[in-house]
């Protein structure tokens, strides 16, 4: 995958990585923990602007809209550790703590919720992608004076002759 990304970048394409995590992963904290680790691994390996998206939020219904979900969007490692330690054997607690420290030190993983039935949710994800690849940053802004000159030329009929 890294070679493909490098090939696109050589042709001056702007690349943004999207890591999609199914919202059903929040039901089991160990699965969510694995999803966070996988997202972080992809971010580190590809070395490109990266957006993490939690998909299928529409399937959660009212549960997906509460303040409880915020802890999953920003991936609070201490709360994840508590949940994971409740469901795992004690011999894995040290490993969980080490993984939580690593997630906390990098502090790179957060998720944007995507509800495919909500147009604002789709627009939010697209805005994050545009921001990550700096879409439109290289376009020269027009000065208000230049815009007035363009309008004057069109009104006088100059724009149609050429």
Automatic annotation (TrEMBL):
Small GTPase required for proper nuclear import of RNA polymerase II and III (RNAPII and RNAPIII). May act at an RNAP assembly step prior to nuclear import. Keywords: GTP-binding, Hydrolase, Nucleotide-binding. GO terms for molecular function: GTP binding; GTPase activity. Transmembrane segments: none annotated. InterPro entries: Gpn, P-loop_NTPase. Residues 146-162 have a biased composition (Acidic residues). Pfam families: ATP_bind_1. Binds to RNA polymerase II (RNAPII). Belongs to the GPN-loop GTPase family. Residues 138-162 are annotated as: Disordered. This is GPN-loop GTPase 3.
């Amino acid at each position: 995958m890294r070679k493909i990304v490098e090939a696109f970048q050589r042709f001056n394409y702007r690349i943004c990585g999207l890591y999609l995590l199914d919202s059903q992963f929040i039901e089991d904290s160990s699965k969510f923990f694995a999803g966070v680790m996988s997202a972080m691994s992809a971010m580190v390996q590809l070395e490109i602007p990266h957006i993490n998206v939690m998909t299928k939020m529409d399937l959660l219904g009212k549960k997906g809209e509460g303040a409880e979900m915020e802890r999953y969007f920003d991936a609070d490692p201490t709360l994840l550790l508590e949940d994971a330690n409740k469901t795992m054997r004690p011999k894995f607690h040290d490993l969980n703590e080490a993984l939580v420290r690593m997630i906390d030190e990098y502090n790179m993983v957060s998720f944007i919720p995507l509800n495919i039935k909500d147009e604002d949710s789709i627009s939010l994800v697209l805005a994050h992608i545009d921001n990550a690849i700096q879409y439109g940053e290289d376009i020269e802004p027009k000065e208000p004076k230049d815009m007035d000159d363009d309008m004057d030329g069109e009104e006088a009929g100059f724009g149609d002759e050429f």
